[in-house]
Design goal:
Blueprint (H helix, E strand, L loop, with lengths): L1 E5 L9 H16 L4 E6 L13 E5 L7 H19 L3 E4 L12 E4 L4 H4 L6 H17 L2 E4 L2 H11 L6 E3 L13 H12 L4 E5 L8 H15 L4 E5 L7 H8 L7 E5 L3 H9 L3 E4 L8 H8 L4 E4 L3 H6 L3 E4 L4 H13 L1 H15 L4 H15 L1
Parallel strand pairs: 1-2, 1-4, 2-3, 4-5, 5-6, 6-7, 8-9, 8-11, 9-10, 11-12, 12-13
Helix pairs in contact: 1-14, 7-12, 10-13
Length: 372
């Protein structure tokens, strides 16, 4: 079988879709050497992403990074490439598929955030997604998504039959593990002058709700007079004016550490050394940092009535992400109640065993086979 995979998010600085593709397909190409995998990039690629001799990388230009080029890349260049390599199936893990090819397509759609929080996206992206997502869902032979929350959302808004959608939870990278006391102390000395810290991990963009996190942290600092720090790990993405303005005049600026993008080894150590994860995202299909924190024996504070509540289950402490006072209350509660903190840690480590890339790879493989 010739399997073509949309790998345009396999970039040197992996995030979101990129991590998803990387973790799954480095497993699948090793487990299924009897098949040929064609990786379709839209730019020069890192050879580390060619995971085996059964992977054939192809650069399909031009770089597809805005709506006009998305249409050209998926509807003109991809069909021609699929025909040339005689693909049996096209797997597209970024929520987009080709509307013009007759090759069976396996579409992975992670969430419908653009419908629920359009102001946190670029306007041209929202217009493209609102117009084309129903077309993608209809065109795809099979659909996979990363939570029951997202499956229900897709079914509700687009009327897709539930039996057309398979749930394949995200996994957790093996590098996310508890660390020793000495490593924790070293990390704290490096980043927070030896102080305990809350951590947020993810891109810095409006949907992640970091303005409310900063407001909550202000309340926490004012009321408890604690030397606790807040470490924000992630790159500046888009629409960050409000965040940047707030942080520039922030009263507790010296207690907030902005690390920028970090290699996953460093992120894993930072996560495992944290006092607690605070993940106030307004909307996610899964919420990978929540699962990573649980695996590291770090308690999770996150948004209620989202996929994160499904992922963390009884191991999470939940707040209303639109109410910064509620976020602050939960931060103060975890700080003052050590028994609660230990309870969440133990529950979280058990629940984290559900999220395994090997299992996810097997589930996706079954969807691919169903596609063809």
């Amino acid at each position: 079988m010739i399997i073509a995979v949309n790998t345009r998010f396999l970039l040197n600085e992996l995030e979101g879709y990129g991590y998803f593709i990387h973790e799954l397909f480095k497993i699948l190409v090793q487990k299924h050497p009897e098949h040929q995998f064609y990786f379709l990039f839209d730019r020069a690629f890192n050879k580390n992403f060619v995971y085996s001799p059964y992977v054939y990388p192809i650069v399909v230009s031009p770089q597809a990074r805005h709506p006009l080029l998305w249409k050209y890349w998926y509807n003109i260049k991809i069909p021609a490439t699929l025909k040339k390599i005689k693909a049996d199936v096209f797997v597209s893990p970024d929520g987009f598929c080709s509307l013009t090819t007759n090759i069976p397509q396996c579409l992975v759609i992670h969430d419908l955030g653009f419908l629920h929080h359009p102001k946190t996206y670029k306007g041209e992206h929202v217009r493209f997604l609102k117009k084309n997502t129903p077309r993608f869902l209809k065109k795809a032979t099979t659909i996979a998504t990363v939570s029951e929350f997202s499956k229900k959302d897709i079914t509700k808004h687009y009327g897709v039959a539930p039996n057309k959608i398979d749930v394949i939870y995200n996994g957790i990278k093996q590098i996310f593990q508890p660390v020793s006391f000495s490593i924790k102390e070293g990390i704290k000395e490096k980043y927070t002058a030896g102080k305990e810290y809350f951590i947020y991990a993810g891109a810095i963009q409006p949907r992640k709700n970091l303005v409310n996190l900063l407001k909550a942290f202000s309340i926490f600092k004012k009321r408890l007079q604690s030397n606790m720090k807040l470490v924000v790990v992630g790159r500046l993405a888009w629409k960050n004016n409000e965040f940047l303005q707030l942080i520039s005049s922030y009263k507790y600026r010296s207690d907030v550490v902005l690390t920028g993008y970090l290699p996953e080894e460093e992120l894993a150590s930072l996560m495992a050394s944290a006092y607690a994860l605070v993940y106030p995202s307004l909307f996610e299909g899964f919420g990978v940092p929540v699962a990573e924190a649980m695996k590291c024996r770090v308690p999770v504070l996150t948004s209620e009535k989202t996929s994160m509540q499904e992922v963390a289950s009884e191991a999470g402490l939940y707040f209303n992400p639109n109410d910064h006072a509620d976020i602050a209350n939960k931060m103060m509660l975890i700080y003052k109640d050590e028994n609660l903190r230990n309870h969440l840690i133990e529950k979280g480590q058990t629940i984290a065993t559900r999220y395994n890339w090997e299992l996810t790879a097997d589930l996706l493989w079954n969807v691919i086979l169903k596609t063809v």
